[in-house]
Structure formats: C-alpha cells, structure tokens
Amino acid sequence: MPSDPQTLAHGIAASARDFDLCLDLAAAILLAPLASAAAITLFLRRRGGAAALISTAAAAAVAAGALWLAFAGERFTGSKEWLRLGDFAVSIGFKYDGLAALMLSVVGVVGLCVHVFSLGYMAEDASKARYFGGLSVFMFSMIGIVLADNLFMMFIFWELVGFSSYVLINHWHERPAASAAAKKAFIVNRVGDFGFLLGILMCYGLQGTVNLGELAQKAAAGHLAYSRAIPLLLFCGAVGKSAQLPLQVWLPDAMEGPTPVSALIHAATMVAAGIYMLCRIHVLMVPCALEVILWVGTLTALYAALCAVTQSDIKKVLAYSTLSQLGYMVAAFGLGSLDGKASGVGAAMFHLTTHAFFKGLLFLAAGSVIHGCHHEQDIFRMGGLRRRMPLTFATFTIGVAAIIGMPFLAGFYSKDAILYLAFENNGAVFAVLAFTVALTAFYMVRVWKIAFLGEARGEAAAHAHEGGPALGWPLAVLAALSVVGGYRSLYPRSFEEVWSLVPEASGAAQGIILATSVAALLLGAGAALGLYRSAEAESAEDALRRRAPGVFGALVMLKESFDAAYGYYVAKIQQRFAMVLNFLDIVGLAGVVVRGAAGVAEMGGLGARALHTGRLSTYVYWFLGGVVVLWVLAAGIL
Amino acid sequence: MAHFLFTCLSTFTVVCALGVVLNKNAVNGAMCLLLCLAGIAGLFIQLHAYLLGFVLLWVYAGAVVMLFLFIVMLLDMQGGAVWRYRAFHVAASLVAAALLVCGLDMLAVRGRFEAPAPAGPAVGGSMKHLATELFTTYLLPVEVIGFLLLIAMLGVIVLSKRFEGSEGAP
Amino acid sequence: MTQTLDSYVMLSALLFAIGFFGVLLRRNTLVIYMSLELMLVASTLALVAFSHFNDTIDGDVFVFFILTVAAAEVAVGLAIIVALFRMRQTVLVNQLDALKH
After folding, report:
1. Residue C24 and residue B92: Cβ atoms within 8 Å?
2. B61 and chain C in contact, CB less than 8 A
3. H-type helices in A127-268, by residue range?
4. Alpha-carbon gap: A589 to the closest alpha carbon of chain B (Å)
5. What percent of the residues of chain B are helix, what percent strand, and what percent coil, each to the nearest 5?
6. pTM for this one?
7. A593 CA to chain C: closest CA distance, Å?
C-alpha cells in the first residue's frame, strides 16, 4: 500500500481513468465559491458569522480540490458551447495543464489562508457577510481565469475579477477615500481591458480562433499569422490588471480596502492574473512585442522601488513592493527564451509563485500589526513590536528575508533565475534589475526596522497584542511556504511542465549572479540599517527626509507625477470634451431630434385636428374631393 | 308627341327640384318635392315602367314625403331660416354641382350610349314579367329587403323610445 | 325626334347635381335630407332609362329595391333627426358641431 500521497492519489485517479471525474472536480472547484456567494447574497445578508463559515468552507474545498488535482497529475480539457451567432461561437471550457495546475494550487492555498485570516481580522466588522460574499465572488472569478481555455471566457472572468476587486476595495464605503479608490481601480482597469478586448478581437479575426489549445497547435504547425499588434494589445490587459506603467496608479490607492483583501487580490492572485495570461498566450509573442514588454516591466520595477523608499504607510510600502515585483515578473517574461526553452515563462511563473507566498505573508503580517495596533498604519507611530507581537515579528522577518533574496529562502531562487535570464539576454536590464534588488532590500529593511525594532513611538504600539489563532495559523503556513517555496523538487509532479522551463545558472554565470544578488542585498540592507539608526529611529520623522530633503522630495514627486498628469488630463481635457458632448446631446439630440420629432408629430396632429370642423358641409366637400379624384383616375387623366 | 311630353315633364321636374333646394320655407320645399316626384313618375311612365311610376307615387310621394311634412311641422320651425349665406359658400356649391354635371356628362359621352328607342312593347311594361323576375332571379334580395324593413322598424321604435325614457317629458 | 339615352342621363345628372347643390348649401337638416332624396330619385331615373334602352328588366327590379330601401332609410333618418332635435333643440347644421376637434 503506497504511503506517498502523490502515488496514492495518482492511483485513485488511474482507477477513475475517465477524465470526466477530473472535469467534474474542476467544475466543482469553479462553482463552489459561486454557490457560496449566491447563498450569502440570497439568505445570509444579516448573518455574518454563517456567511464567513460558508465562504471559508468553499475556499477550503477549492484548496483541497486544487491540491488533489495537482497531485493526481491528470491533464484534461473540456469545453461546452455557450453562445452561437452564425459562424461565431463562444464556449466555456477548461484547460488544465501544468500552468493551470500551478496557478490553481497557488490561488487555492493563499485563498484559504486569507479566508481563515479574515475570520479573525473581520470578526467585529459590521458588514462581514458582504465581505465574504465578495471574497467568494473573487475566488470564483479567479478560478475562471485560471481554468479558461479560450480568451473570450478569460475576458469574461477578467471583468468579474475587476468587479469583485471593486466591491472589496469599497468595503468600507462610508469612507470617501475608499469609494474613490475603488472607482479609480475599476476605471484604470477598464482602460487596460479596452486594449485587451481589441487584442482578443484581432486575434479572432487574424488567427481565426481564440481557443488556447488551438492556438498552441497552430503555433506548433507554424500556421500562426505574424502580428505585432495582437500580443501588444493583449499585453494592455496585463498592463491594466497587473498595474504596470502607465496604469499603475490604482494599486497604491487600492490599499483602502481591508488588509486580507490586499493580501489576496492585490498581492498574490488578481494582479498576478496578468502574468498568468501572458504565459498562457506566449505562443503569440513576437520579438518586438517582447522588447516592449521587457522594458515596461523593468521600468515599472525600478519606478515602484524608488517610490517605495519614501512611503510611511506600511500597506503602501507593500503595495509599491508588489508593483516592483510584478515588474520583475513582466520583465522576466519579456526576456524571452533561453536555450530554446520558453525560459521567460518559467522564470515569471516561478517568481509569481514565491511572490504569492511571501507577499501574501507580508500583507497578512501587516494586517496582524494593524489589527494589533488598533488600525494604526503609519510606521512612524509603531516600533518595538518585536517584543509585543513575537509571532508576527518572526513571520514578517521571514517574509522580508524572502523578498530581499536572502539565500536559501524562496525569493532567492526565483530572483536569481530572473537575474540569470537577464544576464544572458539583456545586459542593460540586468543592471537595472540588480539595482532594484538593492532598492528592494533597502526599503523592506527600512520598514522592518522602523516598525518592529526600537521602542514604541505611539500609544497604540505601546499596547499592541497578537491576534487570535485565526490570525496566527495562516501566517505560520505562509511563512513555511516562503522558506521552502524555492525548492522545486518539493512540489507535485504536475508542475514539472513549468519548472522545467526555469532557467538554471551554471558555471561562471552562476557565480556572477550569486555575487551580484548577495552584494545588492547587503548594500541595500546595510544602507537601511545605517540610515535608520536606533537613536534616530525614536523620532517620528523619516531620517531620509531629514538628511537629504532634495532626494526625498524628488522621490515623492516621482510618485505624484502620474496622478497629477492623469488628474490634469481628466479635469482639463476629458471634462471639456464631456461638456461638449453634453451640449450636443441637449441641443442636438434632445432638442432637435427628440423635440423635433415630437413637434412634427404635434403639427401633424394639429393639422389632422383642424379637419374636424364638425360641420356637415365640410365633410361633404371632402367627399366631393374624393369623388373628383376617382373620376380623374377613371378618366385616365392621371 | 313623346318628345314634347318629355320636354315638358323634364322642365317641370327641374324647376320643382330647384324649388326644393332654394325654398326658404321647409314646408314649401316638401311640397315642391312632391311635385318633382310627380314629374319623375310621369317620366317613368313614358319609359314604359308603369308599375314603378305608380309605386313611386304611392310609396315615395304618398308615404315618404308625408313623413317629411309631419316631421317638419313637428319640429316647430320658426318660420324660414334667415337667408344668411356667404357668397363663398354659394359659389363653392355651384362649382361643385357643375363639376358633377360635367363629370357625369363626360362619362356619358365617352361611353357612347347611343341606342335607338326600342321597336316593340317595352319589357318593363309587363307586370307579370316583373313579378316573375322578382320572385325567381331576385328572390334573395327580396327576402333581405324584408329583413331590412323589419330592422328599420325596430330601429325607429328604439330610437324614439330611448330618449323619451331618459329625458322624461319630451 | 326621338329621345336618346343621352338626354335621360343628362336629366338625371342635372337632378343629381341640384340635389347635391342643396346638400352643400342649405343649413336646415330636413331640407338637406330632402335634397338627398332628390339625388336618390335622380339615380332611379337613370336606372329605369338604362333598363328601357337596353331591353332588360334588371334596372326596374333594382329601382324597386332602391325605393324600398329609401323608405326605410327615411324613416330611420327622421327618427334620428327627431331625437337630435330633442337633445339639441335645433336642426340647423352649423349649430350641430359637437364633433368639432
């Protein structure tokens, strides 16, 4: 009797050899959160506790199902036609391969951790049911993106994910900042999605299909039509969803939502959907599109890291950190192939996985801190949390170590894979990314030091306390994953398909990469520890601002410039255009067309009315007129 | 002789018709109508439609015009209506009438209704023939007309009764 | 000179036109009705003339029916006029314009 779970599950799957079972399981994974959301919406609006339990149960079912499928190792596809208009058909289907297996497992595990964390974090919230309903809708939509086998279906779930993000950011809707942030997120995403939709339409028009399997077959046979526009337009969707330049403005503002939401959606899964989509369509990529993608990712990574240096809100720092890491992933994808394999895909997905673990951990730990300090989010009012919240401190430290690339932790391996790829393919990008590694170390250690070490700087921090087990267990699980996540052999066999694509440094290059990453790490960490020394850590002001106000001001401007530009555009250009259209609408459409049509009808009515004189002779004259016309017709004159 | 008779009768008829239309007094108009009908009955007889001529006199002149007279006198006219016609109305009506005449005439001329007077005794003169036709070829219309008269009778009764009931004293 | 059909038709047309003239011009409802009857009689004259000159009996039969129908119509029409008079206290057409607008 085999005791190894992998072989056991594989045996079970083998006995149920018809992949219908797997299809059904995939469908169940997709629909369980939807059922939970429906139940909450219909019946449990006022019963927050029950809603929380149902939603968490659904998340647990998803996680269990995802892991089962991953360990079973089956590959399957299945689809059903949903809508047909003449020649054109939209179908709903699943494509479960190594990529989907990996992503589904990540979504399942991190989702479950966040759900359990929310049980504790949102325990006293008044609208718990709405929150958990939103989480369930999000899980449903995200799984839909992961399992989608064609681009139309992916687009539908793409939009659903955006919607659930809106609902969740807007959870505390009495706060105007939250409403504004939700709107901003949705609208900016819309801009990206417009390009995405154009790309899908072009793909359908040019290649004749949007089914991922068929596209892969066409690519293998060499029948794909060459197009630069399609991959770039599809990348627009990723620019919006994964918050790359220039559409990155929504992600920092999205921190207005509850912290578990930020962990799940804006760190681990939704923003990673853009990367996932890119990996799905990598057969459509052409070199010039990859060039563009590469530089967008690299610049985003650098820009976000620079902005993160000046932030004082713990969540905003993590948000910019997410932006930066997403930039890494996009850049990795853009670096393309190495040694004939699609190494970009491998490197990006590897970093996506490890990032999901350690960023999720960092956000949840930040949530625990915020919860413990009674919703204080300014790091300059925290401090000394090392002694007050030991578990949180330990897990946060592990997270920081992972993200800055401490050797032997998860982030080290994935970052080095990307650096190696950059080193081999594009030297300039390698230099920029290496510098960004240093910056990452700098700002992460800065936050860690100011928030956790030293003495408490504020009242709330002085009385901080750990949350309950609901907050503790997810932290522990994610911390464990952040430690071991870099060892690819520990994963289920199904992920081999993706892991085989990860570039492995060897020989001299390996030494260079190792040296670069460790040097950058030490440089950044050292600079942070030095700048924010204990004595000055007591002050409530940023040491950098005091020491180098010019640099600080420049970095702040860097962050503000995008928002200012967009604000200018909306206020001056778009508003004016909208007013012109409004004027045209009122005068032209409502006035001329609508009132005009009504006026013409009225005139007609008045004319017809005038015929009713009520006098007999008038009617007889009309009668005579009719007779004359008949005569004229009969006489053949007319 | 026939021609002379025709001319007299037609002139008489036309004059009486004008009398009907132009008379201020409605009773005078009704009397003129009576005379007009007499003229037309004469024309019918000249056309050898004897039964029809007499039926015209009995039914039309005898019953219908009497009915008219009764109603005219019932409705208590305050003498004749004041002749306040606008010239426009008169002119328009004359034009309309002229149009009619011309139109009918044009039709007649185009149709070229040239037919000589028949030699033998006219078909219409025989009452037996008329009766046979009525009760064989045209039986259905006869039955329908009977039905129609029944309905007319009922209608008149209903019309006069209803308003009496709803209004109280007439 | 023998009469042709033309003269009878012309006469009929003339009577018809006079009747029409009366319908258009007069204000008194009863006089209008009488003119209407005049028009009807004119048409019967034309029919009898046609029947005579074409050697058929159909025209006469048709006139028979027309007379019957005219009698029924007059009865009902006058009943209506009487009822109208009771409601409106007038028979002048230019005062009977309740259907105006």
Report:
1. yes
2. no
3. 128-147, 151-169, 176-207, 212-221, 229-241, 250-253, 259-263
4. 47
5. 80, 0, 20
6. 0.68
7. 28
pLDDT number for residue A597: 86
Contact criterion met (CB < 8 Å) for A624 and B99:
yes
Q: Dump the DSSP string for C22-53.
A: HHHH--BHHHHHHHHHHHHHHHHHHHHHHHHH
The answer to whether the Cβ–Cβ distance between B106 and A635 falls below 8 Å is yes
Residue A171: predicted pLDDT:
92
Is B1 within 8 Å of B43 (Cβ atoms)? Answer: no
**Which residue from B minimizes the CA distance to A630?**
B103
How far is CA B51 from each of CA A210, A387, B129, rounded to the nearest angstrom? 94, 134, 11
Q: Do A614 and C101 touch (CB under 8 A)?
A: yes
Distance, CA of A411 to CA of A482 (rounded, Å): 8
Q: What phi and psi, each to the nearest 5 degrees, are found at residue A533? A: -70, 160
In this model, does residue B163 exceed pLDDT 60?
A: no
Contacts of C81 in chain B (CB under 8 A): 71, 75
Give pLDDT tens digits for C41-88: 999 999 998 888 888 888 889 999 999 999 999 999 999 988 888 888
Task: For A161-198, write each residue's pLDDT tens digit.
Answer: 999 999 999 999 888 999 999 999 999 999 999 999 99
Residues of chain A with pLDDT under 50: 1-2
Name chain C contacts of B167, Cβ cutoff 8 Å. 86
CA distance A565 to A559: 11
Identify which of A617, A621, A631 has the shortest CB distance to residue B103: A631
Neighbours of A584 (CB within 10 A): 12
DSSP H or E segment with residue A76: strand A76-85
CA distance C101 to A608: 9
Asked if residue B72 is part of any domain, the answer here is yes
Number of domains in chain B: 1
The class of domain C5-91 in CATH terms is mainly alpha
Answer whether B26 touches C (CB < 8 Å): yes
What is the token pair recorded at A190? 């819309």
Q: Check if A620 contacts C (Cβ < 8 Å).
A: yes
ipTM for this prediction: 0.89
Which of A624, A631, A635 minimises the CB distance to B96?
A: A624
CB pair distance less than 8 Å for C38 and B33? yes
Segment C31-42, tens digit of pLDDT: 999 999 999 999
Shortest Cα distance, chain A CAs vs residue B96, angstroms: 7
- Residues of chain B in contact with residue A627, where contact means CB-CB under 8 angstroms, are 103
* Interchain contact B163–C (C-beta under 8 A): yes
The structure tokens 């401090």 sit at A383
Domain of residue B26 covers 1-77
Cβ atoms within 10 Å of A520's Cβ, excluding its own: 24
Q: Decide if B70 is inside a domain.
A: yes
Mark yes or no for CB contact A617/B99 under 8 Å: no
Please report, for chain C, the start and end positions of each structural domain, with discontinuous segments joined by +.
5-91
Contact yes or no for A621 and B106 at CB 8 A: no
pLDDT reported for residue B84: 64
Q: Give contacts of C48 with chain B, Cβ < 8 Å.
A: 44, 47, 49, 52, 124
Residues contacting A553, CB < 8 A, separation 6+: none
pLDDT of residue A114: 93
pLDDT at C52: 86
Dihedral, A156, A162, A165, A166 alpha carbons, nearest 10: -120
Please report the sign of the dihedral spanned by the C-alpha atoms of residue A415, residue A420, residue A426, residue A429: positive
Averaged pLDDT score across all residues of chain A: 85
Amino acid symbol at A196: F
Q: Please state whether the peptide bond connecting residue A469 to the residue before it is cis, i.e. omega within 30 degrees of 0.
A: no
Among B57, B48, B69, B53, which residue's Cα sits nearest to residue B123? B48
CATH number of the domain encompassing residue B15: 1.20.120.1200
